[in-house]
Amino acid sequence: MQFEWQVAPMNEWHGDGIVFFCFEKTSTPPSCLERWWQQTSTSLPESYTWKDFRGKPQEIALHYEVAKEGIPRVLLVGLGPEDKFDLEKFRSAMAAATRKSRDLRLGKLVLPLEALQDLPRDTNRLLEEALVVAKTSLHRFDALKTRDVEPLPFPEEILISTENRPQAPASGIPPMAEGIGSGICLARDLVVSPSNRVTPSCLAKTAQQLSGKYGFKVEIIDLQGAQTLGMGAFAAVAQGSSEPACMIVCEHCPQGLENTPPLVYVGKGITFDTGGISIKPSANMEAMKQDMAGAAAVLGALECIGKLKIRQRIVGIIPCTENMPDGKAYKPGDVIKSLEGLTIEVISTDAEGRMVLCDALTYALRYKPALIIDLATLTGACIIALGKHVAGVLANHEGLSKAIQNMGSEVGEKFWPLPLWDSYFESIKSDVADFKNVGDRSAGAIIGGIFLKQFVPDDVPWAHLDIAGTAWADKDQPTSPKGATGFGVRILVELARDPSMVKSLS
Predict the structure, then answer these.
(1) How far, in Å, CA of 487 to CA of 378, rounded?
(2) What percent of the chain has pLDDT over 90?
(3) Which of 328, 368, 476, 495 is 20 to 30 Å from 137 by CA-CA measure?
């Protein structure tokens, strides 16, 4: 899908369909629609008296009787009550318009900038959200299908139509949305792909491809290299798999920022999780290919950051391995020494995510980071606590936690804070090591965060994002199809785009 500006008087706009938005219980058409009609005809059709259209969320009325030489179809999309309008409802409405355009096989959909100016939110934010949703809401992974493959998606082009030539920052929004959409789609494709294809080596190759496109520095640390460094926790998980493990270190460093403390993004890259010796039940185990969604989010964010040439130093660190029950696999009762030098008593080998992440967090400290964000499908407990539409955020800095919540709500990624009080550490005290890798069944998502907190100094702003519930949708959602969601890409990009937020943490 491509985005193009169409700068012309309203009566010269052209396309296969045009979309307008309206609120529920509105007695008159949106002002932009009225102006467009007045410039393209003599009177408003009787159907615009709204007798059969109530403007409920995602409700669509399609009008053919207004057929024009320039634009033969009008899509009216409901937003619900005006006093309850928010960006989430707008995104859902835009996704509904995009799906309808696909069903109608419209090649070019006209999105009037003036229609967005009628809505009670910042026009530039609305435009970015509309274009990101248009690009991602219809994205599907068909690469492995050999029959019944869907045709190329419609619409092929979004024409952003306006009477006046756009000025910055509006003029830069289409390429920004294109970059964000590309990052989300990359993350989705990686997560939904089968684990016999998306291996640690595949993720390393993806990082190297990004390096070739955008000039990133990439280092691939293999298992032997990790062991030499002293990454005992990572190596313990990796030793049970015959698939070569690695840790990917990918750096985006624009000229002049070489000495700037970077933002470090750490993504859990367990490309398949059997649970190891603490093996999972066989039912639904195929879903464990999703356990590298944190890694995919980091790579997706780097795709966007590189494409948009964001002037921020970013380091992505991705520990990648399978978790398998081989004869060489680590076992419950083992005591493992981490890169930090702390010893860990293994209670469950199915708590492998925190084992690989802890060494990656320690490795991240060598960059003297401005902040560290780690993303992981870490605990089923987070799904029990928050459901499948909200991710947990556990942070050692209240300002960072609030920034993630606020930025996330703006871009459709919802986060809710969970505590990191020291009293929770009691659950993982060990008789034979510095601490255990799990506690009892209570507060499971928090205990995962408490474990990771042991590896980050208090003076380094850090947040752990548990995306276990949000990384995958079991059915079609308003703004994404069934399957991988690409959750996490947008919050990482937003953090990179806002250097003032980073400065506020110092």
Answers:
(1) 14
(2) 82
(3) 495
